[in-house]
Specification:
Helix 4 crosses helix 6 and helix 6 packs parallel to helix 7. With 425 residues, this protein is of the alpha/beta class. It is 29% helix and 22% strand. The structure holds (4S)-2,6-dioxohexahydropyrimidine-4-carboxylic acid and zinc ion.
Length: 425
């Protein structure tokens, strides 16, 4: 194993110091270190963060390897500064058995670029009718702890209750895609002034808020853990605020795109801006940003949703919802939050690692901790070129936008997965 000495680096925004990585762990953090056998990385101007952890990634394998594979998505993650990602279950076949989650987990290990933690489906085939084999997935080699039908809502309140009850036994969590399906039938974008003007069927904020309100009550009733995926409205923030004040065991995520982009993007009719839940209004964005700073929203999760060209470059109504996120998330966070390194570490690494129960991740670089970390250059501004992304898909909403920050290096258990801004393998 090679040792790495990173000199004059700021650890999570603190005064510059030297950081030595050896045998997979952070060996020392102190100014003036020397290690003749180590490869030296000049960390001047760089910030070291605990490796980012994404609680919401779509890797598309098995089934849609043309859009993304575990390996290509892992590479995109490493380039984005991530050392662990939770892979959503809406693959084909669906990750609703021990066999499929073990397959995804094994592919992640083989790629070796980030830790891939499979999410298991809540219901068989994401059909919302029967509970999947939650216990078998939990007991499998993949040790699943997060269950989600993401892409679909677990709309049946009895199934949702049973799922919440079931996962209590192993401290699991149900991650809900909050969308009351009867309220979003045929919906194409956020229901509001812009949808009215464009004549597109709207997805009302209340469809999300109603499910979150119901689910926090269910989680409170059974004393179990609920995680709310991609919160997108100001009203959802208020429901979460009240639930948290009562002590409900609920956590919530917001995506980079819901922190930055409004429903006015739909005016272009460019399906790259079609996503579920849809882009909302400027006042929703303001509420989401405030909630993230306060902690009512716990984390930023990407909802990285790669789609093949034929599923995106078509008419708006036929396009699949979803956008890439892994390679741009840190830049959007920097743009939205500014260089608030402790907050960024909290919302993008420490807290998501804790929610997912990923030991060894989400820990600030300090002597003895596993060397899962990333180096950011906040001074660089880069222009996003879709063709340069490592993802197999091209559906980034940030094409040709200039964004702050660049990932210089990422280490997984002391081995670089990214160096000089390039993937090592
Ligand atoms: O926009 C989305 N895309 N939202 C989801 O919930 C699912 C995801 C996907 O799988 O493409
Ligand atoms: Zn979703």
């Amino acid at each position: 194993m090679t040792a790495y000495l990173i000199t004059s680096v700021s650890v999570v925004g603190a005064a510059p110091t030297d950081l030595l990585i050896r045998d997979g762990v952070v060996a020392e953090v102190e100014a003036g270190l020397s290690a003749p056998d180590a490869t030296v990385i000049d960390g001047t101007g760089l910030v070291a963060l605990p490796g980012l952890v994404d609680l919401h990634t779509h890797l598309r394998e098995p089934g849609r390897e043309d859009a993304e594979t575990v390996e290509s998505g892992s590479r995109a993650a490493a380039l984005g500064g991530y050392t662990a990602v939770c892979a959503m279950a809406n693959t084909s076949p669906v990750a609703d058995t021990a066999g499929v989650v073990e397959q995804v987990w094994r592919l992640g290990r083989e790629a070796g670029l980030v830790d891939v933690q499979p999410v298991g489906a809540v219901t068989v085939g994401l059909a919302g009718e029967r509970l999947a084999e939650l216990g078998a997935m939990a007991d499998s080699a993949a040790q699943v702890r997060i269950f989600s039908d993401d892409g679909h809502c677990v709309a049946d309140p009895l199934l949702m209750r049973r799922a919440l009850e079931y996962v209590k036994a192993f401290d699991g969590v149900i991650a809900q895609h909050a969308e009351e399906p009867r309220l979003t039938e045929g919906a194409q974008m956020h229901e509001g002034e812009v949808s009215t003007r464009l004549g597109l069927i709207g997805w009302p904020a209340v469809a999300e808020e109603a499910i979150i309100a119901r689910d926090v009550l269910l989680a409170e009733h059974v004393g179990s853990r609920l995680h709310v995926c991609h919160v997108s409205t100001a009203g959802s923030v208020e429901v979460l605020r009240q639930a948290k004040a009562r002590g409900v065991r609920v956590t919530a995520e917001v995506t980079p795109h819901h922190l930055l982009l409004t429903d006015e993007r739909a005016e272009s009719y460019d399906p790259v801006f079609k996503v579920n839940p849809p882009l909302r209004t400027a006042s929703d964005i303001a509420a989401l940003r405030a909630a993230l700073a306060e902690g009512v929203i716990d984390i930023i999760a990407t909802d990285h949703a790669p789609h093949a060209v034929e599923d995106k470059e078509c008419e708006w109504a036929y396009a699949r919802p979803g956008m890439l996120g892994l390679e741009t998330a840190l830049s959007i966070a920097l743009d939205v939050l500014g260089p608030e390194w402790d907050l960024i570490a909290e919302r993008m690494s420490r807290t998501p690692a804790r929610i997912a129960g990923l030991t060894g991740h989400g820990v600030d670089p300090a002597p003895g901790v596993p060397a899962n970390l990333t180096l950011v250059d906040p001074a660089v501004r880069r222009t996003i070129e879709p063709a340069e992304l490592a993802s197999r898909s091209r559906n980034t909403p940030y094409a040709r936008m200039t964004l702050p920050g660049r990932i210089v290096a990422t280490f997984l258990r002391g081995e670089p997965t990214v160096l000089d801004g390039k993937a090592v393998k």
